[in-house]
Amino acid sequence: MTASRGRAETRTARDVLRDAMPPARRLRWTLAAGFASEASAVALLAVSAWLIVRASEQPPVLYLTAAVVGVRFFAIARAVFRYGERLMGHDAALRQLAATRADLVRRLVPLAPDGLLRARRGSVLGALVDDIDELQNLPLRVVQPLASSALVAAGAVVLVAFVWWPAALTLSGCLLIAAAAAAGWGWASGSRAERDIAPLRGRLADAVLDHLTNLDVLIAYGAEAESRDRIVAADAALRRATVRRTGAQAGTSALVSLAAGAATIAAVVTAMPGSQAGVLDAPSLAVVALIPLAVFEVFATVPLAASAWRQVRSAAGRIAASVPADVPPELVHDSVAPTGEAPALGDGLRLRGASVRWPGAAVATLREVDFDLRPGERVLVVGSSGSGKTTLAHALVRFLDTDGVYEIGGRSVHDLAADDVRRTVGLCEQHPMLFDEDIRQNLLFARETATDADLEDALARVGLASWLRARGGLDAPVGERGALVSGGQAQRLALARALLRGFPVLVLDEPTAGVDPEASEELLQDLLGAVREDQAVVLISHVSVPGRLVDRVVRVEDGRLLESVGP
């Protein structure tokens, strides 16, 4: 590998959680609005209790005016501050969510495609969608409720202490007991279910994806029912975990309700001696008795915040695990920034003593390879399955790094950005990626400035002119991953896309995979005939290719390239 390697950052769950928190300049206003809303709720109940009891004593209306105004003020303030909290909180959380998702994609890009081969599609999709969505709960359902509840509870205890300090002691004691009991119950009964939900969701996504993408094969071999049973089993496991989590949350809510009732009874019991002695008047007694109910209504979010914290922490751990701590050394580590320009092909490609391995492989798949490709040359690469043909293709387009010499036009690829190399060397894979869009959009990914005439010309060059007319033109859809086109048509569409891009070197990796043997020669003839004379082609194939279509043949055996022979 090259000597100049970028040091990969170590990614931990703590890093993910820290990055998921919105900036303090946005979060502080959310916290302030949340505190004001919860404090207004407690103040509303306290003032209302005082007003009702005091009004029953029938004093002059003048003595009630301030309390009436207070009730109206706190009722309106509660709603206004709650709206402000939701508005500012969700704005801050969603802004940070977009940045977190973009950061994860940025970290995944250097691993694609060969660094993600062992990752399940459902797991990666879960990390990008469900787990990152879960992170928005960190500021919204963990930090904000805990901060607001703690401040409001402390303020309520101080308020009750001013009225009757023994009741303040019982209120604080009940709050502490409720916090410990609810958190302990939630951890004991629901923590495992909360940790399991996201992996089970990924398992279900994997089962559904496998079933839908391989449905024709499953039906052909009579395995469709078994695959469907796997989906049902995964769904049942996810449902059981969700029910366990919901049950744990219900249990914590019940404990908080019991603690609220106990706090109210304790407040009344401790305040009665003062009331009987005439030290505590009736309106003050009502305040002391009812404030615990309001405080525990606010406090009810604490156990839910603890549950949300466990889920957020588990999601952060899975996100951190979805990206390796270090980019595997077998993958390309760019030491230079992309220029956006294709390196000149010059006199062609040149490999000398090049060795290539896949991530995690114990030994190199290709060893001490010497290979030359001149402009306009057609080279056929043959060999048994697993011999290293696809490895060579991925090394040429810099998906995999190479030990030894690899030059384009006399320049070492280690001095070029991988994205720039792929502007010169293009790859058409065994199973081309077609998006669930129309034909036009699938081609415009290669050159967005192309006109419809350019697109139709490219399709005609690969033998799809009559097919295009039969499909109704460029607006015809191709389906999810090309489900509405055949294997041969998908290869032709991929080549048309490559022709629009204009790669000086084109690597065709098993273009006849999934094509009937009778049609493979016609497909190869059309594909190679569509390429410009000055374009070099590396054709990788496990089937026989007519000698007239290529200039020479290179055989791969046991990780080594044999000397070129004539077609």
Describe how the helices and strands are arranged.
Elements: H1 13-20, H2 24-56, H3 65-108, H4 121-135, H5 137-163, H6 165-213, H7 215-220, H8 224-276, H9 282-299, H10 301-322, E1 349-356, E2 366-373, E3 378-383, H11 389-396, E4 403-408, E5 411-412, H12 418-424, E6 425-428, H13 439-444, H14 452-461, H15 465-471, H16 487-501, E7 505-509, H17 517-530, E8 536-540, E9 552-557, E10 560-561
Parallel strand pairs: 3-8, 3-9, 6-7, 7-8
Antiparallel strand pairs: 1-2, 1-4, 4-5, 9-10
Helix pairs in contact: 1-10, 2-3, 2-5, 2-9, 3-4, 4-6, 4-10, 5-6, 5-9, 5-10, 6-8, 6-9, 6-10, 8-9, 14-16, 16-17
The gross shape turns out to be elongated
Biggest sheet strand line-up: 6-7-8-3-9-10
Poorly predicted regions? 1-10
State the end-to-end CA separation.
34 Å
Q: Quote the average pLDDT.
A: 83
User: What is the count of DSSP helices, taking H or I runs of 4+ residues?
Assistant: 17
- Beta-strand level of the residues, as a percent range? 5-15%
Helical content stands at 55-70%
Structural class: alpha/beta
Largest sheet: 6 strands, mixed
Number of strands: 10
Cα radius of gyration in angstroms = 34 Å
Order of helices and strands: HHHHHHHHHHEEEHEEHEHHHHEHEEE
